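SEQUENCE, STRUCTURE TOKENS:
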Amino acid sequence: MNYINIFITQKQKKMKNKNENNKLIAEFMGLEIKPNECGRLFRYHKEWGWIMSVVEKLESEIGAEVTIKRMQCEIAYKDSLNPKKNVKFTMASGIKINALNAVILNFIEWHNENNKK
């Protein structure tokens, strides 16, 4: 299977700020965010229980394959109807949860952009 490989470097990782990133993930997870509520209520960036719920959704509902190996994380997604949408996001980091968070954020942004209705 051919993928478009996207290797995320430290400079490229989507770390605008933790609140915005947590809000993006919360919206992807289908959580309702009130206008006066900010992303600081969410803890995807530092708690494994939170981020693993996203991994579960990616694998079970989106059909992506998430691999966490040593300090490298990868999300591979293949679209059987449109092979041009086969992508693989990869990042290595000294802190495993940061690498996982970065590939998830990049994948969500890509997914949102490529699945607009």
About this structure: The chain has three helices and four strands. The mean pLDDT is 85. Residues 96-114 form the longest helix (19 residues). Residues 83 and 107 are 16 Å apart (CA to CA).
